[in-house]
Specification:
Length: 336
């Protein structure tokens, strides 16, 4: 971590000096974030050697809707230098591994995926046919730097609007939304959506990706009252899903949670099953190559008369015992 702090300082000094490419370097600096604490879930020997060797990574945020634009007159697309040359610029600073987004919020696909119709692709991809993840992999190989793909799980505006039954719901039936997923958080109980997300990861593996970062959680931490979740809850617990809610002060803001411990436990079960399914698919698709999949680990809040001992989210510590060796457990809010 000290070495990486030195790299950040070097980037800052280079930009301040106003040398060649200073603006692009500063733009790159502003997009770099530190990684959260990580712990190996399975045997570290089953992870890629480069991943075990380099535990600190540069994190970037370069969504095409922010760093690329279309000329209204000529109809041509152009992207910033930082977007196009991140691998080379980071490698020139001595960074061995960095994280690059391949899906950041709920925007369209960053490549011509077979999992979604063309209208569900990013506008840049619809117009140009560019396969951005494949370009990132090629650029990282040319620069001699490793890249981890950050593929956000929670939102997808195309599928949220096309299949509203796949959207997570509050007890009153309204869609659960977040800043990252304003069209609706995708329900972890909707198996067709899970299949689509996993199929996208398989496509990225076919391009050559061998490490992934699954940030945050795939659904809503406080509960999901979609029809598919209600049906699965009734199947497992033999009763309707309780509808009570309470407000808990979380790490970022007040969050609504179910007042039922069983609903929170159900959320945990579904989340762990989803992650297990995802990691197993990654391993099978990448075999015999070793892979790394960063997943979120945290604990469920203990509710006593509407109060909580810890303002945390899912109980996903069961992932620690999967034992397949490809999972890397990323602490959420440093409390795992």
């Amino acid at each position: 971590s000290y070495k990486f702090c030195g790299m950040v300082a070097q980037m800052s000094q280079s930009s301040a000096a106003g040398g060649a490419g200073a603006g692009a370097t500063m733009q790159l600096l502003l997009a770099v974030l530190p990684i959260l604490p990580m712990h190996f879930c399975g045997s570290a020997t089953q992870l890629p050697d480069w991943f075990v060797q380099h535990r600190t990574h540069a994190h970037t945020r370069f969504p095409p809707e922010r760093y690329c634009s279309k000329d209204a007159t000529r109809g041509q697309w152009s992207c910033s230098s930082a977007f196009e040359n991140a691998s080379a610029e980071l490698a020139s600073l001595g960074v061995p591994v960095y994280v690059r987004q391949t899906h950041s919020r709920e925007e369209g696909a960053w490549w011509p995926t077979k999992t979604t119709p063309k209208e569900g692709w990013a506008p840049l991809v619809q117009d140009t046919g560019r396969n951005l993840p494949a370009e990132f992999l090629a650029a990282s190989k040319a620069a001699g730097i490793r890249v981890i793909f950050y593929h956000f799980m929670m939102g997808n505006s195309y599928w949220a609007s096309s299949k509203p039954e796949w959207v997570a719901r509050w007890p009153n039936g309204s869609a659960i939304t977040t800043v990252q997923a304003p069209s609706g958080v995708m329900s972890t109980c909707a198996q067709p959506w899970r299949d689509i997300f996993i199929a996208q990861i398989k496509e990225l593996i076919a391009m050559g990706a061998r490490a992934f970062y699954f940030d945050h959680y795939p659904g809503n931490p406080g509960g999901d009252w979609s029809e598919s979740c209600r049906a699965e809850f009734a199947k497992r617990y033999g009763k309707p899903m309780p509808a009570g809610l309470t407000t808990i002060d979380g790490p970022h803001k007040s969050t609504a949670y179910s007042t039922s411990r069983q609903v929170l436990e159900f959320n945990s079960q579904i989340t762990q099953e989803y992650f297990s399914e995802l990691v197993s698919a990654i391993e099978a698709s990448a075999a015999p190559d070793p892979v790394a999949a960063l997943v979120s680990i945290a604990t469920v809040p203990k509710l006593d008369n509407g109060q909580t001992e810890l303002p945390t989210l899912y109980e996903t510590s069961g992932l620690l015992s999967l034992g397949t060796g490809s999972e890397v457990c990323k602490s959420e809010y440093d409390i795992a």
